[in-house]
Design goal:
The complex is a heterodimer of chains A (334) and B (409). With 334 residues, chain A is an all-alpha fold. Chain A is built from 14 helices and four strands. Chain A has a domain of 218 residues. In chain A, strands 1-2 form a two-stranded antiparallel sheet. In chain A, strands 3-4 form a two-stranded antiparallel ribbon. In chain A, a hairpin with a 2-residue loop joins β1 and β2. Chain A is globular. Chain B has 409 residues and is an alpha/beta fold. In chain B, α2 runs parallel beside α11 and α11 packs across α12. In chain B, the strands form two sheets. Chain B has a seven-stranded mixed sheet, with helices on both faces. Chain B has a five-stranded parallel sheet with strand order 2-1-3-4-5, sandwiched between helices. The chains are: A mainly alpha (334), B alpha/beta (409).
């Protein structure tokens, strides 16, 4: 087999494997963990549009996630609107908020930008925690919103088994991966890259860096909000501390840093490593060594940051290339 | 659990994902508790109390109607986060194949988690999570041992009324300060209603996040509002912070009334020392409760785990005995049979009945009808600071006169 066909076949084989996975993994628990892996891979890929390509470090994506979760949940609880539609409404609102946040903050550099985005996200959380009713919409303050598990079905995006959730988030993940790989090779991708690395040089070349960043932010916020709706429908309960949690914003950034910021596969690799570690260590140590999972998480983070500061994506890509060489017996064309 | 088992469990689980458990000879009770995070100390107490009850029951021959079957406890950490509790409930039911669930202490975790148990038809015994709505969801699988929060607030106001009459000290102005979660806001909503009915003036209504590291802005508001009585709903760390900050700012009040939780946590008195003196607190249980077996159970617990039983621990201890009683009568591990037996519970004796009230029986919502509360005052009568039962008056410790209003410090 030639190297080229292999290179085309392997991703397809991988896709076929993940599509068939629920046939082999019958346990709802492990399927749930896989769903969370995909969810975080999706979130981090969406984040990567800004945090990776545009070279800034946004730490407030929980705001968009929460907007998505709350918008679709309120619309479905109070007005009976399908979460699929609510998802898009939430996405549009989040994109608008993303632009509003982006316009002033993209002028800031480095830590200032990161801090400003944290402040916005925390501001949203505190507001939602302290607002019982926003006009006609019941936010329920710190008590959160529970979606009664009554109307199962595709239209209501609510299922008694885990398999439908698995496929929904898998499709979302594949779609967002295709989108980012398309963008990374588009004019917008090059603008973002140039603006991220050398903003002055890029501007001197006539690139509207600020505009490119705001467009990326709008897309990133829109996509993040869709995941918020998915999360609400998966757990059937949201409250400000879960939907707007700072932990979520940080975890997305950690996954990106460990997997490899700015690359297409980095977020997926990061989620694939960190999520199961967090879940399995909680399951197996939560009983005997409480808090252990948090320590393990921290140690991995420190090790990767020390020895692979550009993320695991680099050595793993090299490994993959070597595997392709070995399998095909050809050398990679330089 | 040794290391080998720890490795074997995931391996076995992976290799026979769909298979049933090979260790089916025990009754498996899944317990979702905050083992890490802000409420970890309460989770640990619940764990210790459950363990003590299970050891006693197993040593006495297990569940006799099931051929001496032993009870086995499986723990899961909620980290006080609802989504973790929900995921863990699903795991315990689907992977560990538990027969019953208990937990989760934090009302915000218990609320969505009971919905999972209801979906799978698995009995869920809630030792203590006080939000009313937990037993108001129309669920058939939820049973709560402890009193719900509307009963707590009802008794706090009844106590306040009795104290004014007994000591001839009128109280007009109230301040409400509470953690802004499910629990605190639930209490505050009841307080507002009761204050209106009782003709009190509410001079401060202040929620705060229980993860705060500085509560001096809240204390300054209390000082400015000049209330007669301060009602609090706090978790452990914030109860300590609030009490110390109140002392630091020298806020003068006629009474401070806690709502259990953090104020009942053993770490509270250790951390605040004499600043805790004369604070009232409501709870389900005290070490000086006049019930057969209570003293012995407390001594055994203290020898084993190094602290006194708390209300939370006693609820967890009793919950295991309620479960054992139901299993004994069910004579089956079928969820429907266990549920039926739990519904028919009428427990008034046995080692678990060291609570202040006399009986456990559930109403149609799953709430224990007989659960009741006591009010204590933290004070030093020569044996160091302790929690002294003061209300209801017939349960008051002999020879103790409550300090009301608080002495000017």
């Amino acid at each position: 087999m030639t190297r080229n066909t292999l290179q085309r076949l392997l991703p397809l084989a991988l896709l076929a494997t993940v599509l068939c996975l629920p046939l082999a993994v019958r346990s709802a628990t492990y399927l749930h963990i896989m769903i969370l892996v995909y969810l975080y891979a999706y979130l981090t890929t969406s984040w990567n549009l800004v945090g990776g390509f545009a070279g800034v470090l946004p730490l407030g994506h929980a705001a968009f996630f929460g907007i998505g979760a709350y918008t679709s949940t309120i619309l479905s609880l109070q007005y009976g609107i399908s979460p699929w539609l609510g998802m898009l409404v939430g996405g549009v609102i989040a994109a608008a908020v993303g632009v509003l946040i982006g316009l002033p903050t993209f002028k800031m550099r480095g830590a200032y930008f990161a801090l400003a985005t944290i402040a916005f996200a925390e501001g949203f959380r505190v507001m939602v925690e302290n607002i019982d009713k926003l006009g006609p919409f019941a936010l329920n303050g710190p008590r959160g919103l529970q979606i009664p598990p009554l109307n199962f079905g595709l239209a209501e995006m609510m299922f008694s088994g885990k398999e439908p959730y698995y496929y929904i988030i898998l499709i979302m993940l594949v779609a967002v991966l295709l989108l980012t790989s398309f963008i990374s090779r588009s004019k917008l991708g090059y603008y973002l890259n140039a603006g991220g690395e050398e903003p002055e040089a890029a501007m001197a070349l006539g690139i509207n860096v600020a505009r490119a960043k705001v467009i990326a932010m709008a897309m990133s916020s829109f996509l993040t909000a869709l995941a918020g709706t998915f999360y609400a429908q998966l757990n059937l309960y949201i409250h400000p501390k879960s939907a707007f949690s700072l932990d979520l914003s940080f975890e997305i950034a950690f996954i990106a840093l460990i997997g490899g910021r700015g690359s297409i596969v980095g977020p997926v690799l990061g989620a694939l490593l960190l999520r199961p570690v967090s879940d399995f260590s909680r399951i197996y140590f939560g009983d005997t060594l409480p808090g252990m999972h948090l320590i393990i998480f921290g140690v991995i983070l420190i090790l990767v940051m020390t020895f692979q500061p550009r993320g695991l994506q680099e050595p793993l890509t090299r490994l993959y290339e070597r595997l392709l060489d070995r399998l095909s017996g050809e050398r990679r064309a330089a | 659990m040794n290391i080998l088992q720890k490795i074997a469990v995931p391996v076995v689980a992976f290799s026979m994902l769909a298979g049933t458990s090979a260790f089916a000879e025990n009754v498996k009770i899944g317990n979702i508790e905050p083992m890490s995070g802000p409420s970890a100390s309460l989770g640990q107490q619940g764990k210790a109390a459950r363990e003590m009850a299970v050891e006693e029951i197993n040593a006495a021959g297990g569940i006799k109607s099931l051929g001496g079957m032993k009870l086995e406890l499986i723990y899961a950490d909620s980290e006080s986060k609802p989504e973790k509790g929900v995921a863990e409930a699903e795991r315990l039911i689907n992977t560990e194949k538990v027969h019953l669930l208990t937990g989760c202490w934090n009302s915000a975790v218990t609320y969505p988690t009971t919905a999972v148990a209801e979906r799978y038809g698995i009995p869920f015994v809630v030792p203590v999570s006080v939000a009313d709505k937990i037993t108001e969801q129309g669920f058939k699988t939820v049973f709560r041992i402890a009193a719900k929060d509307s009963w707590w607030t009802r008794d706090q106001f009844a106590f306040l009324k009795d104290m004014q009459a007994e000591f001839n000290t009128p109280v007009k102005k109230l301040a409400f300060v509470y953690e802004n979660g499910d629990w605190g806001t639930g209490f505050a909503a009841q307080w507002k209603k009761l204050a209106e009915e009782g003709g009190y003036e509410v001079v401060l209504d202040e929620p705060y996040p229980s993860t705060s590291t500085d509560l001096s802005p809240v204390v300054q508001k209390i000082k400015r509002a000049k209330p007669d009585v301060l009602l609090l709903t706090s978790n452990a760390a914030d109860a300590i912070l609030l009490t110390n900050t109140l002392a630091e700012y020298n806020v003068q009040l006629k009474a401070i009334i806690g709502s259990g939780g953090g104020h009942a946590d053993p770490s509270f008195m250790k951390a605040v020392g004499k600043n805790a003196a004369q604070i009232f607190d409501i709870g389900e249980w005290e070490t000086d409760v006049n019930k057969p077996g209570a003293k012995e159970a407390n001594e055994k617990y203290k020898a084993k785990y190094g602290q006194n039983l708390s209300g939370e621990a006693v609820d967890a201890y009793l919950a295991i005995y309620v479960i054992a009683d139901a299993l004994e009568r069910a004579g089956s591990l079928e969820p429907a049979k266990i549920l039926e037996a739990l519904r028919a519970t009428d427990l008034s004796s046995g080692p678990g009945m060291i609570v202040g009230y006399d009986k456990v029986a559930f109403d149609e919502t799953g709430q224990n009808k007989h659960a009741a509360l006591v009010i204590v005052q933290v004070n030093d009568t020569g044996n160091g600071l302790e929690r002294i039962t003061v209300w209801p008056k017939n349960a008051r410790r002999a020879g103790y006169t409550p300090v009301f209003p608080m002495a000017v410090k």
